[in-house]
Specification:
By secondary structure, the protein is mainly alpha-helical. The chain has 6 helices and no strands.
Length: 171
Amino acid sequence: MRGIVTLAAALALPDGSATTAFPYRDLIILCAFCVVLTTLVLQGMTLRPLLVWVGLKDDGTVDRETRLARVETARAALRVLEGQPSRPAIDAMRRAYEARMRMDEAQAKGNPGEQTGDELAAVAARVITAQRAALMDLRARWIIGDDAFHAAEEELDLLELTTDARIRPGD
């Protein structure tokens, strides 16, 4: 923001003919740009060495708290689903929340036998890539039309979004 305000102030100086233009406007804009660039780049380049020198490290608090929040929100969802009658969609939702809760609890305990979210996301990404290739093949061979292609593509897009470890419900 500091750089944008500086440049905006310099660019706001009147421009026009030699009689109406602000004196040395171009020089002021150049100086403002150089100062902003130098301060941002210089500070940006020194930030990492400063953090290393100070010895600041991530203690994992945010990750632990995030896992705890996921477990507790999954428990809340399961409490709501507890009273629901058994139907395929409800049962699938229940299994997804139970899997998410088990995975996050296992990661919180540091269970080395469990797959990490990154490993599961990588497998899910490969699965979605294969699905996209099959969909493209169907479209290329004119087995499905544009409307069906776009509908299936939208479903794959949504599925791809759910493979993010932060929102993926688990196995």
